[in-house]
Amino acid sequence: MLVRFKTQSLTLAVSGPSMEAYFALAISLGLGLLVGLQREWKVSEIAGIRTFPLIAIFGTLCTMVGEDQLGWMCAAGMVAIAAVLVIANVAKIRAGVFDAGMTTEVAVLLMFSVGCALGVGQTGPAIVATGIAAVLLHWKRPLHGFVVAMTDRDLRSVMNLALIGLVILPILPDQTYGPYRVLNPYDIWRMVVLIVGISMVAYVAYKLLGTRVGAILGGVLGGLISSTATTVSYSRQTKDAPEVSGMAALVILIASTVVNFRVLMEIGMVAPDLLKVAVLPISALLLLMAVECVLLYLPLRKLEAQAADHDNPAQLKPAIVFGILYALVLFLVAAAKELFGDQALYWIAGVSGLTDMDAITLSTAKMFNDNRVDGGTAWRVILVATMSNLFFKAAAVAILGSRKLLAYIILTFGVAALGGGLLLAFWPEIDVSELRLK
């Protein structure tokens, strides 16, 4: 739309605003109402359901004054908002009302910035930032309760996680060294961050749920944290209390079943093309073990399971050990493939899978990405490692647990191992090259 004003010596053309501008104002209104609703519900004395939309709209309008003045207008608007906040807080103090918290004030500044972002077309980041702000504002009590409940050990674990992912990873060289050209420090440590991150999320959920963790959820989270540690913990429980052997067997079986899901998740993150080949056979084993879990759960559903004692996975020493193990397995897989062919990979998988599934899974996925191993061999290597891991956990039960628990494990793991053997023998080959093109 173009409006023209004529005078005797001057014609003035004024361009009307586009639909995008009105759209930005509408979103500013909606996002401001969202945060304002939460603050009004919390009875904020600084800003509420009317003030926050006005602030967001103000930020959007500050960007609609021309490109040359946009930065200055946004800066001036931010200063003006800050000055209003200072005046409001001074008035509160004089009235005898003092609140040391600054959450609402920071939310006001954020919503002004959101309005500015909407004005320059950054709609996605503005919406995400507002959603995060609304959630954080509303989760005040759970977040504060979580921090209060943290021990010194938990805080050290958070710092260790930051050290592992935010300090060590960025400074490692992203170059390949050594024979067979497979040892890349950055890639190796990135796998460490991935595994520690998955385990840490499950560990935090386990701690937050506390006594509410039952047999099923305990097994699921135990499989995501460490199925081997879960097996050891519940086996020890049955040594002095054989009557809980059935429930312990259920938790161990669930944790071992979840390992298959964890393997698929790791493959999907590292080698999506391999997942297209591996998802069906590994899911078939997952389904078989899930059916076993259901059949074992039905007669035991009224019993309760005692929670396991998991070590925090975000520790520097275990992370370094896993990094070394992953690098070693990666090197051995590459060397065995080069010197002895695919058959040697199964022996390495059988040995490395005894105590750790992550290293052989990730190393095999990387070898697939580097076109050193075909898809059919890759998923079979991982499946061999899975059955080797079941054997190791059964041996741990035999040493640490009761005879009744061992009977449960021999039966359930035996069926799973039989199913895995049938998959290895009869599952048809799939042409991965066609799947890569898709």
UniProtKB/TrEMBL annotation:
Transmembrane segments: 47-65, 72-91, 111-137, 158-176, 188-206, 213-234, 246-265, 277-298, 318-337, 344-365, 377-398, 405-427
DUF4010 domain sequence ranges: 193-401
Domain MgtC/SapB/SrpB/YhiD N-terminal span(s) in chain numbering: 25-145
Sorted UniProt keywords: Membrane, Transmembrane, Transmembrane helix
PANTHER family named among the record's database cross-references: DUF4010 DOMAIN-CONTAINING PROTEIN, MEMBRANE PROTEIN-RELATED
Protein name from the UniProt record: Uncharacterized membrane protein, DUF4010 family
Originating organism: Neorhodopirellula lusitana
Record lineage: Bacteria, Pseudomonadati, Planctomycetota, Planctomycetia, Pirellulales
